[in-house]
Write a structure and sequence with these properties.
- By secondary structure, the protein is an all-alpha fold.
- The chain has one domain: UbiA prenyltransferase (Tetracycline Repressor, domain 2).
- The protein contains 13 helices and no strands.
- The longest helix has 30 residues, at about 40-70.
- It is globular and about 50 Å long.
- The termini are far apart.
Length: about 280
């Protein structure tokens, strides 16, 4: 019988890294779009929205991948695979989370930002399907993980400026980079079950591609800071983040699979360092 603990496992409550990687860029954008420290209402609203969106995405991901997850060592004990939670129950739970996210958007955000939340949720929950046929599904995930940026600009400026699209593009490259590292963890199992990932597609060029994605990401973020004329603290944060990204590439070159998950997790520090730089720049 499913318990509350099982549903928490279903939404990866014990593994907040996905929520954090979705949250940091949204918060950067919220500050950029505001041009100052935004009100607590919007910080809390976007943070809750990120949590609910990621939670529903995890549910629908497991519903779509249940027949694949049982063949993958890392995912074979998930609640849907073990049968503790039935697929119908999971779908109802996922729909409920999605409805809560939409209600939250209606309460906190303007109509244009609310309308943007609809394709954002659709893209996020359909990501698992793209792993069946799209050679680089991580790019599709990058679009999903970047919609919070567009929503923040739409909420605070009522339109999507050039800065909004620059931050969107930067985050897209960052996501492709770190999620390709994540895909390297399961590459052997994915080859067996037939799922497509950027790690498989890039093959022997996977490390150079990740390096280029990281470099483009940080260069765009520096350019955004220059356009917004941010204080030096932001650029110091960009430099520190670049060093963390460089460290990841250095370890990747060693081709030690046991360290890939740690490298993926380190990206939380990249997001947090950049947010600290943004916060200090606007205080």
């Amino acid at each position: 019988m499913a318990t509350f603990k099982h549903y928490l496992q279903l939404i990866r409550f014990d593994k907040p890294i996905g929520t954090l990687l979705l949250l940091w860029p949204t918060l950067w954008a919220l500050f950029f779009a505001s041009g100052k420290v935004p009100s607590l209402k919007y910080i809390i609203g976007f943070s809750l929205g990120v949590f609910l969106t990621r939670a529903s995405g995890c549910v629908f991901n497991d519903v779509a991948d249940v027949n694949f997850d049982k063949f993958v060592f890392r995912t074979k004990n998930r609640p849907l695979v073990s049968g503790v939670i039935a697929r119908k129950q999971a779908i109802m739970f996922g729909v409920g989370l999605s409805v809560l996210a939409f209600i939250l958007a209606l309460i906190v955000f303007n109509i244009k930002a609310v309308l943007l939340s609809i394709p954002a949720l659709i893209i996020y929950v359909t990501y698992p399907l793209f792993k069946r046929f799209f050679a680089v599904p991580q790019a599709y995930l990058g679009v999903a993980f970047s919609f919070g940026i567009l929503m923040a600009f739409m909420q605070m400026q009522n339109h999507l400026s050039g800065i909004a699209w620059l931050v969107f593009a930067a985050n897209l490259f960052w996501v492709v980079g770190y999620d390709t590292i994540y895909a390297l963890i399961d590459i052997d199992d994915d080859l067996v079950v037939g799922i497509k990932t950027s790690a498989i597609t890039f093959g022997e060029f996977v490390v150079p591609v990740v390096a280029v994605c990281y470099l483009i990401f940080i260069l765009i973020m520096v350019y955004v800071g220059m356009l917004l004329e941010l204080r030096y603290s932001y650029f110091v944060a960009c430099l520190l983040s670049f060093l963390v990204l460089l460290y990841q590439i250095r370890i990747l070159l060693l081709k030690q699979k046991s360290k890939y998950f740690k490298l993926f997790l380190i990206n939380n520090w990249v997001g947090a360092i950049l947010f600290a730089g943004v916060l200090l720049a606007y205080l």
